[in-house]
Amino acid sequence: MFLNHTITALTGMTSPLFPSPLLATVEAENSPIVLTGVLLSLVIIYLASKIGAEIAKRLDFPPVLGELVAGVIVGVSALHLIIFPESGLSASDSVVMTILEWINHLSPAAATSIFESQSEVISVLAELGVIILLFEIGLESDLRQLKEVGYQATIVACVGVAVPFAAGTVGLMTLFHVPAIPAIFAGAALTATSIGITSKVLSELGQLKSKEGQIIVGAAVIDDVLGIIVLAVVASLAKTGEIDVTNVIYLIVSATAFLIGSILLGGIFNKTFERIVNQLKTRGNIVIPAFIFAYFMAFLGNAIHLEAILGAFAAGLVLDESDARNELDELVKPVADLVVPIFFVTVGARADLGVLNPTVPENRAGLSIAVFLMVVAIVGKIVTGWSVFGQPGINRLAIGVGMIPRGEVGLVFAGIGSASGVLSKPLEVSIIIMVILTTFLAPPFLRLAFGEPVEPPSTGEPAREQPVLGGESQPTP
Amino acid sequence: MFLNHTITALTGMTSPLFPSPLLATVEAENSPIVLTGVLLSLVIIYLASKIGAEIAKRLDFPPVLGELVAGVIVGVSALHLIIFPESGLSASDSVVMTILEWINHLSPAAATSIFESQSEVISVLAELGVIILLFEIGLESDLRQLKEVGYQATIVACVGVAVPFAAGTVGLMTLFHVPAIPAIFAGAALTATSIGITSKVLSELGQLKSKEGQIIVGAAVIDDVLGIIVLAVVASLAKTGEIDVTNVIYLIVSATAFLIGSILLGGIFNKTFERIVNQLKTRGNIVIPAFIFAYFMAFLGNAIHLEAILGAFAAGLVLDESDARNELDELVKPVADLVVPIFFVTVGARADLGVLNPTVPENRAGLSIAVFLMVVAIVGKIVTGWSVFGQPGINRLAIGVGMIPRGEVGLVFAGIGSASGVLSKPLEVSIIIMVILTTFLAPPFLRLAFGEPVEPPSTGEPAREQPVLGGESQPTP
Hints:
The structure is a homodimer. The first copy, chain A, is mostly helical.
């Protein structure tokens, strides 16, 4: 079928994939090689994710930690198998590209273009991975229970944004004599929780449907929205020295309207979804309508300058209420199994552990600030557990620990701060270290905070109450 | 999580997705918008595929025909929702890009870059679609039965390459006074069968495992290899006027070694696969190893200048022999349901029906040649059914009809021919028309040739013998 590969190899002529009026571009000529690169990258990502997850499982860590670490090993910090042009690396640094060049005798220009295209494809697949993950988390979450814990989740989210922000900003100004604006920026980088990592670990521990799990997920979603708003404030502060009030109000209103609106409309759409599914007679009658909805909501989330994953999560919550949900759960599982690991491995692959190297002077200056930020990042989220009210016997430590991972959000802050010249290099490095360590420490911490899983994950109903604090005896597995 | 979107909107600053050393490229800055475009394109593709398939089903046509036609409607020929830069169109022609520009206030340069990136992503997803389709077809095919019909399939393939090639070349030279080299080129464009379309229709008719179905699939695979070899010959002929014998021998040897080698090694790998699957304890324990194998074989097929889909088909054949096959079938289904439609809709979307417009002088000149090529294309493949020996009562018409669709292969020929200046515009147009019409006519023809499906597709064992020719009575459903 797609003979272009051969064509390019044989003739060196332009040969688009499906050339209707036959105006081939460079992109089109390279596209079979891009496919080769994507296939090889996926093989590496899957091998890494499976080996990492299995080793982690055997060492009694959450599998997702293994995927992250495996990502680090194949990524920019070590083997250079999966790297991205954003890290300032070029095609010649990539082992995959070296293999492709060896197979296809590419020119440097073609290699650069192919490297960028295949990195773009892997990036989008990773983003589809986290979208599908949040869709699945939405399907596994219980809207009624989420509503029940809504107040607690909101308070946890607000405390978890306010405490690290205040403590981080004030601490940097007083202890490290950092000027106000960079201190505010770094404080803001301490706020938002990485919902992807937390929810995946919860799911692996079978704790997603526990009261603690639902509070964490709810709070992480709200956190994400708060993070966007904090970012809008801080970014306009860094750019103009003033706060763009209109934009902040727009974000608050649109986020609230989006989440509440999608849940309200969801009640109506549910019935429509079931009617549509029952009418369809061709293959994919459940999975395609479900993904149309999920992708459309993700598109909408992105389009109104919120986030794709919020839309996907809302779509999952809505469809969780439909009668087709059990069948849908089963169908989404293999899809998620194939796409979600791409996200976690690339998160690991993108984390440059080089910033931990103390022989680089900039890193040394950053390391002491990093220690401070780490303490604030961990303590500032752990205290949120004690802001939960009216839930006697709840595992407060687990809730706090669940909010710890910062993931990419913090790195985005560091990125803007650095690009706008607000952050000094040591401060930027210390934010990156804080993000990497909270991301990697949260899975084992969360595992410890919840104690032994009562039932294996992904089968049956997980345990609701499983106190490790407060002196109650633990249920035996 | 991915706040870049907001960042770009708010600050206009560079904001890579996960900016480790924070060297942002234009690609990275645009990547959340690329994701928005991909999500919107996928929503459109899924809507089109489902609506098309359901209407086709209700009109008693194969659903895949509906997906192709729906693709034409959303594609370059009509609505311009899903278009590709290869067709010479720019971002401003794309409705998806117009929506993105309206949401994000993009500069023309950014729009072009985003248009190319998101088209590249959709193209790769479509190619992954046909790879997964062929993997699934391999899983559904029976290696033993394929071996049994191996001789017949080889003969059908050879006849199906030789007859249209000879008739096309000679006819063009004698009837239309086309010079030898362009005539050979056009004749070559008549050879290769589109295995994707044929196998999908067979699967939908529940005929994939019938003797006819297995002969068609086997012949289409061999056809594909022969097509690569014919292309190598014709391309070097067009380029240098001579045939590159070394390359032709390399292709023949590598193709044979690849297919036979993978089947022989498969017997060993089967046991290893089962052992690995049984050892794995984390999610995706079957599906990830299976896709590692499928993608690796696809990569290998591409890397040795054969085809990715041949590798995926071989991987499917091998795993079909393993004990985990039933479970694997169930797991691959939803994945295929989500990715395969992207292939068929984009095939339709890329087909420019503008070449059928008789008011354009070039098209008029092409139309009479096109009629001739169509006749050769159809008759030249239908006769192959009568080259099958030792199979009394077999549905010869169905076999011949199954070889009719040319799909992208013919377009690739037209593309190279045009790029190298060998083909005149009318000849090129006539090849494109021939490809489009054989692709669209084959599904209903195949449906007619097989008569009514005995059982609904995808469940149970399909009927083996179902003659419509030869006077035998048909088994009642």
